[in-house]
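hey so i finally got around to running both of the ones u sent me last week. sorry it took forever, my laptop kept dying halfway thru and i had to restart like 3 times lol. anyway pasting them below in the order u listed, first the sequence line then the structure token line for each. didnt double check formatting much so if smth looks off just lmk and ill redo it

first one:
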Amino acid sequence: MGLEGKPVSTLHEKPSYDLADFPVPTGREEAWRFTPLGRLRGLHDATAKATGQVGVDVSAPDGVITEWVGRDDPRVSAAYVPADRVSAQAYNAFDKALIVTVPKETAPAEPITIDVRGSSADGAAYGHTVITVEPMAQAVVVLDHRGSAVYADNVVFDVGDGATLRVISLQDWDDDAVHVSHHHARLGRDATFRGFVATLGGDLVRLSPSVAYTAPGGDADLTGLYYVDAGQHLEHRILVDHSVPNCRSNVLYKGALQGDGAHAVWVGDVIIRVEAEGTDTYEYNRNLVLTDGARADSVPNLEILTGEVAGAGHASASGRLDDEHIFYLQARGIPADEAKRLVIRGFFGQLIEKIEVEEVRERVARAVEAELEK
């Protein structure tokens, strides 16, 4: 249940393309209570001037169609309606939308790579991307965010009947960057979506992945890894909305925090509506708080409106390294510092192995190693 006994679903009931439908957040709202609004640099209250520079480069295999289109293209708004004020601001402020289409019954041999590069944190930039995987097609997409920017965007994954889409999203920004993004996956009949998020850089990153089902048989896995340093605010807010029968979802996010003022926020909302009989879902978040002065907020929410489910559960845990694990390794001659690093490597190892693109997997592993050396 949400605040004051209200169902979680009421937090997501009023999507709109109209910015005026979303009041300026004050920080007292459930959806914004963990976010330091003063560090959003005006993305939430329309004071951010759209003078920022963010470049987007696309590398796509043969057969994949890429287009830059205007707001009047019907594909831009076909699969997603903004769910909060920053999302609506991004929708109303972008210049051109990127449309990537994987044609029916194709399976590109190489990943589709979308590089997002910020050149300055002076002024804001906005973006909109739609990735459509047509029926019975398969694709892997890498979203790579780097540089300095104040950036808000929406990324829509429209997965057709029987299609499979795997997405890896890296938030590897410079220390002064602010990024607020909504990732939305819409799944057709028997469609499969695998989303992996690695958030490592930036001053403030707030990422909101969501999943909606349009027909039975949809299968979604959302996996995330984050490492928060001193002064960073990294926030992930997940919504999985089960509104049709016999669909599956699994959410697994892990994070580590170190340094004064390091703040991680994870909110997981799973809704199983009355008509969604046969749903099978689970969500889990775990945080390692490695030093004093770091804070992890973890809020799993599960709203079940039907008694006919295959399975539903959630769990959350935040704490220090397990002293027994450290003692076990020290008893075998491993120094304490190295023992701690080994435990943290093992904590993230299961997730890193899920990254299917070798270059990206190695890059994330190196980033975690660099954090361990701090």
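and the second one:
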Amino acid sequence: MKLLHRVGYYLGGFSIGLIVLAFFLNGKKVSCDYGPEARVLKNINLKQINYSNTIDSAIINNEIDSLEIRNILIQGDINFSKSETRKEPCAIYAIEGELDKKELVLLVENCDSIATIQEIKWE
């Protein structure tokens, strides 16, 4: 069999496979969270989010909105060098994001069933 025929069969089967996958996965919430940062953010967002007393007062005084905090928890970047990932019983992660063109760092304590935002730092 010629090389051109082999490539043609391969591309034909590959395209049929893509169409079948698109048909089965259409409309489903499928994500590819394979990196360590994506897995930690997904883990935090699946849990109940609590705020420490200082964060509650900042939300009440309209310094920051809870929806803005949630957005940073979804789309932020984890700085593993500032995080304490091996701390027992709950790891602490530094999640960096941008709010009003200012850098913001959330310190989040990630326990088994609850994630607590401990501190907000403006940088």
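quick thing i noticed on the 2nd:
The mean pLDDT is 85.
anyway thats it, ttyl
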